[in-house]
């Protein structure tokens, strides 16, 4: 099985794996310009909050690198005012590709800051561009390290918590939602990183994951990642979470996040809230694992988080390979998109995310540590972990 990655850069080429085709074919698409990056994010060929932020940053780096190498130079490289106007326009455009994942906004804000700092320092257009390229590549590069750190914090915290509840802290069963692994980040993952950490340290018995309809991030992507990591796992339909909690000993639910409000309310893949309500009913710890860049301190609570509505058609379709597997002339499994609703269906509700209130969350883990609520409180003080 090829090593899983969402983005690769080699020989001056920026490429992403087309996640709409996984797990049946691994096809890389070149991102040649800002519009390609925008379209790939909007159409969910790449998805996952940290991965889309990394791609946006790398697309800006690539765009500036090409401009510096092109002869004649584009006009907007002629002076810093024109450069500023151009880069700000590019960043604002990229930011609109998907509204809920704040990492994208954090990346574009960070690059805007770098741009202004370089201009304030009196650097010329060439130097300003180079500062932006360095910062953009750093946004991508720092992701893997912080994922490993938060996975370790969260994994260690969970083991201690289970021991505190009278368990052994080994042989844990952890359920997750959506896909938060290497495909959703620049590597290792957040909630799936925590599960991987438990597996690597001999503490995991089994990972459980929901299909995560309608895009099927669970059944297509998380299943594939867990297989490639040789982690024992079981898939369930989204409607089976209550049954799982009734009939199996599940020690925790670990999920990622697209935006965490100042009080800890968390937007994540649709279906996360259902799992949190059921986890509370069954007294199972519910853990959110995400980088600091997912925390939006400017939003006081979940009511201020914009929720992306996806096109209705996406909830009416299932995408996959023909079965029994039909191969094309090159030995590649043939893909199909199948309509599962009657033609002309009028009403379709298709929010991409929901908000889990802080009151249902046991711990929020970032690369800086683990936050829990004070006794009797319903909201988090995230100050120590941001
Ligand atoms: O719509 P998606 O697939 O981009 O949604 C992804 C999620 O909800 C993830 O849980 C979140 O982005 C965190 S990924 C580390």
UniProtKB/TrEMBL annotation:
It comes from the Eukaryota. The active site is at residue 258. Transmembrane segments: none annotated. It catalyses: 5-(methylsulfanyl)-alpha-D-ribose 1-phosphate = 5-(methylsulfanyl)-D-ribulose 1-phosphate. SUPFAM superfamilies: NagB/RpiA/CoA transferase-like (SSF100950). The record marks 178 as: Transition state stabilizer. The keyword Amino-acid biosynthesis applies. HAMAP family: Salvage_MtnA (MF_01678). This is Methylthioribose-1-phosphate isomerase. The lineage of its organism: Eukaryota, Fungi, Dikarya, Basidiomycota, Agaricomycotina. The gene is MRI1.
């Amino acid at each position: 099985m090829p090593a899983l990655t969402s983005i690769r850069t080699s020989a001056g080429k920026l490429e992403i794996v087309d996640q709409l085709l996984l797990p049946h074919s691994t096809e890389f698409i070149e991102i040649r310009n800002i519009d390609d990056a925008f379209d790939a994010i909007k159409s969910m060929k790449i998805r996952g909050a940290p991965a889309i932020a990394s791609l946006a940053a790398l697309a800006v780096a690539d765009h500036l690198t090409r401009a510096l190498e092109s002869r004649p130079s584009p006009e907007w490289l002629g002076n810093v005012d024109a450069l500023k106007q151009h880069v700000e326009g590019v960043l604002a455009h990229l930011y609109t590709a998907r509204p809920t994942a704040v990492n994208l906004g954090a990346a574009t804000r960070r690059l805007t800051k770098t741009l202004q700092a370089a201009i304030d320092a009196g650097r010329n257009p060439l130097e300003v561009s180079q500062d932006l390229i360095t910062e953009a590549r750093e946004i991508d590069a720092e992701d893997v390290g912080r994922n490993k750190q938060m996975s370790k914090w969260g994994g260690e915290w969970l083991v201690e918590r289970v021991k505190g509840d009278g368990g052994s802290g080994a042989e844990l069963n952890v359920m997750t939602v959506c896909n938060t692994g290497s495909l959703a980040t620049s590597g290792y993952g957040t909630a799936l990183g925590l599960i991987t950490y438990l597996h690597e340290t001999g503490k995991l018995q089994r990972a459980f994951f929901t299909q995560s309809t309608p895009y099927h991030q669970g059944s297509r992507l998380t299943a594939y990642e867990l297989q490639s990591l040789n982690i024992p796992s079981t898939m369930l339909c989204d409607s089976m979470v209550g049954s799982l909690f009734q009939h199996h000993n599940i020690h925790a639910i670990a999920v990622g996040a697209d935006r965490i409000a100042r009080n800890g309310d968390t937007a994540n893949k649709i279906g996360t809230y259902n799992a949190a309500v059921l986890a509370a009913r069954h007294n199972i710890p519910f853990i959110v694992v995400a980088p600091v860049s997912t925390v939006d301190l400017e939003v006081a609570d979940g009511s201020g988080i914009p929720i992306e509505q996806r096109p209705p058609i996406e909830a009416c379709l299932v995408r996959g390979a023909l079965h029994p597997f039909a191969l094309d002339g090159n030995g590649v499994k043939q893909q199909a998109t199948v309509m599962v609703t009657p033609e002309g269906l009028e009403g379709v509700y298709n929010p991409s995310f929901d908000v889990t209130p802080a009151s249902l969350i046991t711990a929020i883990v970032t690369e800086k540590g683990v936050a829990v609520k004070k006794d009797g409180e319903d909201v988090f003080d995230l100050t120590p972990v941001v």
